[in-house]
Design goal:
Pfam families: 7tm_4
CATH superfamily: Rhodopsin 7-helix transmembrane proteins
Function: Putative odorant or sperm cell receptor.
CATH topology: Rhopdopsin 7-helix transmembrane proteins
Radius of gyration: 21 Å
Main location: membrane
Helix content: over 70%
Number of domains: 1
Shape: globular
Distance between the termini: 69 Å
Family: Belongs to the G-protein coupled receptor 1 family.
Low-confidence stretches: 1-8, 262-266
Strand content: under 5%
Organism: Lynx pardinus
CATH class: Mainly Alpha
Number of helices: 11
Order of helices and strands: EHHHEHHHEHHHHH
Number of strands: 3
Strand order of the largest sheet: 2-1-3
Structural class: mainly alpha
Mean pLDDT: 82
Oligomer: single chain
Length: about 325
């Protein structure tokens, strides 16, 4: 096959964990359960945030988008992974691979920027509480979300075609369980220094810049919290910001490793498990973190459940 045009022909073979058949069977059960719990948890967050009037605030507007991102991100790859783990067929079409790569890069980029927006929301809530609703008005919230989505999609529109069009000289085996950028770059039969350089530059804007912004925002938040005299006031702020800080730590601990090392410099096996953690564990934990650590969400769930029970009794 001609190496110059093989990128648009045939199917890809996702090797995944095929070297460990016993591990595949265990992973299938674990991932299926985790995926179903992820769907249930994030759907619950979205429904509670929309149905309870007490949660119609900027914070929960952004949290709804985070849950939607987690649902979309997980669904873009996990069903294909479950299909491959459950049988001998490990193939994915070129179109399917392209869609998977586009969604992986696009949704991942949006989430990086969304976490920065959520950090700014917490900064305004803690440092400028009297002006919070004025500053975080609906127009600004929509504008920030549109910016996050626009930048994430633009990043994916640049990197996805560049990655897919790399000559592979007939090689179609992807040493991963999804069409992820580092795995596809490793398949290339040409020097990939240029595309790795472009990926790094874009990562500075999509990954590192939001990270720096979040750290600065929380620096101001910590300084503001330390000036609060009331212990109950401090506890309330830490309780509210702690959820976001935990989610931020889980997300960035994985995304920096995967995104900032796009080529052969990253370990293949380690990269697989980190991607699996990022794809299923983080979206699974996010709704749990916001439910168990947040009194407002627990209160909203309680009101909805009690409201449904009382409605059934009347009927």
């Amino acid at each position: 096959m001609d190496g110059t045009n093989d990128s648009t022909q045939g199917n890809f073979i996702l090797l995944g964990f095929s070297d460990h058949p016993h591990l595949e069977r265990i992973l299938f059960v674990v991932i299926l359960i985790a995926y179903l719990l992820t769907l249930m948890g994030n759907t619950t967050i979205i429904l509670v945030s929309r149905l309870d009037p007490h949660l119609h605030t900027p914070m929960y507007f952004f949290l709804t988008h985070l849950s939607f991102l987690d649902l979309s991100f997980t669904t873009s790859s996990i069903p294909q992974l479950l299909y491959n783990l459950n049988g001998h067929d490990k193939t994915i079409s070129y179109t399917g691979c392209a869609i998977q790569l586009f969604l992986f890069l696009g949704l991942g980029g949006v989430e990086c920027l969304l976490l920065a927006v959520m950090a700014y929301d917490r900064f305004v809530a803690v440092c400028k509480p009297l002006h919070y609703l004025v500053i975080m008005n609906p127009h600004l919230c929509m504008g920030l979300m549109s910016l996050a989505w626009g930048c994430g999609v633009a990043n994916s529109l640049i990197m996805s075609p560049m990655t897919l069009w790399l000559p592979r000289c007939g090689y179609c085996k992807v040493d991963h369980f999804l069409c992820e950028m580092p795995a596809l770059i490793r398949m290339a039969c040409v020097n990939t220094a240029a595309i790795e350089g472009i990926a790094f530059i874009l990562a500075v804007g999509i990954v590192l810049s939001p990270l720096v912004f979040i750290l600065i925002s929380y620096g101001y938040i910590v300084r503001a919290v330390l000036s609060i005299q009331s212990s109950s006031g401090r506890h309330k702020v830490f309780n509210t910001c702690g959820s976001h800080l935990t989610v931020f730590s889980l997300f960035y601990g994985n995304i920096i490793y995967m995104y900032m090392q796009p080529g052969t410099s990253s370990s293949k096996d380690q990269g697989k498990f980190l991607t699996l953690f990022y794809n299923i564990v983080t979206p699974l934990l996010n709704p749990m973190i916001y439910t168990f650590r947040n009194k407002e969400v627990k209160g909203a769930l309680r009101r909805l459940v009690l409201g449904n029970l009382s409605l059934r009794k009347r009927l």
